[in-house]
Design brief:
CATH architecture: Roll
Radius of gyration: 14 Å
Distance between the termini: 20 Å
Shape: elongated
Structural class: alpha+beta
Number of helices: 2
CATH class: Alpha Beta
Helix content: 25-40%
Number of domains: 1
Bound molecules: zinc ion
Strand content: 35-45%
Length: about 80
């Protein structure tokens, strides 16, 4: 895993935080709150880890199956610690 603390875009500081991940599927909108991410404190660019991305994929697939117009999910509640 790359562990640079500098943003490659603006050279600002990257900080571990959470973000709201949104997937717009056209007919459905899936919103995953409290998604762990690394965020640049200067320009706001976000990076999501591969492991987190995999979990997000599972959450999104589950949400798709529910087939609601808008599905809002809390990442922390979905993930197993
Ligand atoms: Zn930046």
């Amino acid at each position: 895993m790359k562990n640079s603390n500098k943003c490659p875009i603006c050279n600002g500081n990257k900080e571990f935080s959470t973000t709201t991940f949104t997937v717009d599927l056209g007919t459905n909108l899936i919103v995953v709150r409290n998604t762990p991410a690394t965020i640049c404190s200067n320009c706001g660019e976000e990076w999501i880890d591969d492991t987190i991305a995999e979990q997000l994929e599972d959450i999104v697939n589950e949400a798709k199956a529910k087939n609601r117009m808008i599905e809002v999910i809390d990442f922390k509640l979905e993930s197993v610690a």
